[in-house]
Amino acid sequence: MPPRPPWRSSPRSTCRCCSRRRARSAPTVVEWATRGGARALGRDHDLGSLEVGKKADIVLIKNEHSPVSFPLLNPFGHVAFQARRGDVHTVLIDGRVVKHEHRGVDLARAREEVERTVDHLRATMGEEAWQKGMNPDIPETTILDNPYTYTDYRSASTHSR
Fold first, then answer.
1. From edge to edge, which strands make up the β-sheet containing 88-93?
2. Dihedral over Cα of 30, 32, 38, 39: its sign
3. Helices 127-134 & 107-125, crossing angle to 10 degrees?
4. Is the full-model pTM beyond 0.85?
5. Do the Cβ atoms of 107 and 115 come closer than 8 Å?
6. Long-range contacts made by residues 110-114, C-beta under 8 angstroms, separation at least 24?
7. Could you please report the per-residue DSSP string of the chain?
8. In the structure, what pLDDT confidence band is assigned to residue 124 with cuts at 50, 70 and 90?
9. All residues at 6 or more sequence positions from 98 whose CB lies less than 8 Å from its CB, including other chains
10. Residue 59 forms beta bridges with which residues?
């Protein structure tokens, strides 16, 4: 299965990845995350909106137990800025249900695919490189004074002025 296009990860991520510092309206963020992502990939002819003949990936958001789920006054704002992954009730990818009632539909298959991927990476990298990646060297850290503290405390473990 090919990797999912990046705009499906999160409208909040779409919002954060824009380098310009300007106000973003919720409808604009949703546009960027759907049609904008398809346009950026040159795939707006078959992705990015719900139309006859296009591939349909749909995320349904519903969580009656989440405090951000009500009142639903601005649906675009809710999707772009409030909803979290725990609020995703159902997911359809290319018309196939892969998550329903907050649970993956075929977790056994997903686990098998992950295990195959790990086995492939481990075999390709070699055991030594795999172990080094699983237990990376941690560099020394230096603690610096915080210029925004409201105290004159300094210690030898940070540095003195």
1. 58-61, 88-93, 96-100, 103-104
2. positive
3. 120
4. no
5. no
6. none
7. -PPPPGGGS-HHHHHHH--S-----HHHHHHIIIIIHHHHTT-TTTSSS--TTS---EEEE--TT-GGGSS-S-HHHIIIII--GGGEEEEEETTEEEEETTEES-HHHHHHHHHHHHHHHHHHH-HHHHHHHHSPPPPP------TT-SS----TTS---
8. very high
9. 91, 92, 104, 105, 106
10. 91
Scan for tokens 């490189």, then name that residue.
Answer: 129
Give the pair of three-digit tokens for residue 69: 């789920």
Pairing between β-strand 58-61 and β-strand 103-104 as defined by DSSP bridges: unpaired
Is the dihedral angle over the CA atoms 80, 82, 88, 90 positive or is it negative? negative
Checking if the pLDDT of 18 tops 60, the result is: no
- Dig out the tokens for 33 from the structure: 């995350």
Per-residue confidence band for 150, with pLDDT thresholds at 50, 70 and 90? low
CA–chain centroid gap for 122, Å, is 25
Which one, of 91, 107, 87, 88, lies nearest residue 99 by Cα? 91
The CA distance from 101 to 18, in Å, is 32
